[in-house]
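Lecture notes, unit on protein representations.

Consider one protein chain, 119 amino acids long.
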Amino acid sequence: MAYRSKYTGKYAGLGRMISRPMFAKPCRDAAVRIMQVAQDDAPVGNPAEDKHPGLYKRSFDVVPIVKNVPFRGKPRTRFGAAVINTAPHAWRVERGDGRVPRYAVLQRAVDTMKAAHGG
């Protein structure tokens, strides 16, 4: 006769576990990998035509995020990280506007990481 184990999760315990600051580092590590993929794929302007060639590529950064996610009406802190680009023309490079083609560097970086990890 085979023994069948039974697991009943305790959401309160899991919630306390993922609310700990130790989960900020794995989130930051994943964001740094996404940032590296985005930097490798970022367009660099022609120095003859562009006043600031490479500015978009150099302007990527990873910032920590602390978010309040309510669970059963009680506030719960969750840690994360975001990849941002601080270049003044970052929105145009990501979305395109007619003058600048749509490159979608960050979206492609996220898609690349998802494909690499089966997501």
